Amino acid sequence: MSENALIVVDMLNDFVDEKGVLYCGQSARDIIPFIKGRIEACQKSGDLVIYLQDSHAEDDKEFERFPKHSVTGTWGHQIIQDLAPQQGDIVIQKRRYSGFFETELNDLLKRHNIQAVEVVGVCTNICVMDTVGGLANRDYDITVPRAGVADFDPEFHEFALKRMDKIYGARVIS
């Protein structure tokens, strides 16, 4: 069993498709081929592939800060077709920014004896960064490839990459 995992964060219609409520822009579309390649490489090598899926109820408190998005069961909530999970991949629905908040992610990583985690997806300064923070708090070896993350705000994107590098100790690679 591999000690490595790939976490794919919120590559959902509402964030990545032009018709999505919180479309992150062309940068979110541009990372799809890179992420697809990483997923395929991890599947081939036996690494664990985990999808985090933003999942909200109709009346979620988060909608006080953001437009209604990724409501469970809607088109916007679906993982984009180009990155559809394959047999053996794991999908974890999350209600908040971090993949660890009230989910089974921590137990899953422990159960699979994961030591190193690569994180890709959107949005760099929100769900990616908060999930990386959760990994750092649990002492994982973390890699964040620049080619695999995107954000709707270029300034916050760069800030998040610096924070993940300097504060969380993630290897942010080109």
Commentary on this structure:
By secondary structure, the chain is α/β, with parallel strands linked by helices. The chain has one domain (4-173): Isochorismatase-like (Rossmann fold, 3-Layer(aba) Sandwich). The protein has six helices and seven strands. It has helices at 13-16, 26-30, 32-45, 105-111, 124-137, 154-166, and strands at residues 4-9, 48-54, 90-94, 116-122, 141-145, 149-150, 171-173. Strands 1, 2, 3, 4, 5, 6 and 7 form a seven-stranded parallel beta sheet that branches. Helix 5 links the parallel strand 4 and strand 5. The radius of gyration is 15 Å and the shape is globular.
**CATH superfamily heading:** Isochorismatase-like
Number of strands: 7
**CATH arch. level architecture:** 3-Layer(aba) Sandwich
Helix content: 25-40%
CATH class: Alpha Beta
Question: What is the C-alpha radius of gyration, as a whole number of Å?
Answer: 15 Å
Helix-strand pattern? EHHHEEHEHEEHE
* Strand composition percent: 15-25%
What's the shape? Answer: globular
Average pLDDT reading = 97
Low-confidence residue ranges: none
The biggest sheet, with number of strands, parallel, antiparallel or mixed sense and barrel status, is: 7 strands, parallel
How many domains? The number is: 1
- If helices are DSSP runs of H or I spanning 4 or more residues, what is the number of helices? 6
CATH topology, what is it called? Rossmann fold
Cα separation of the termini:
28 Å
- Structural class designation: alpha/beta
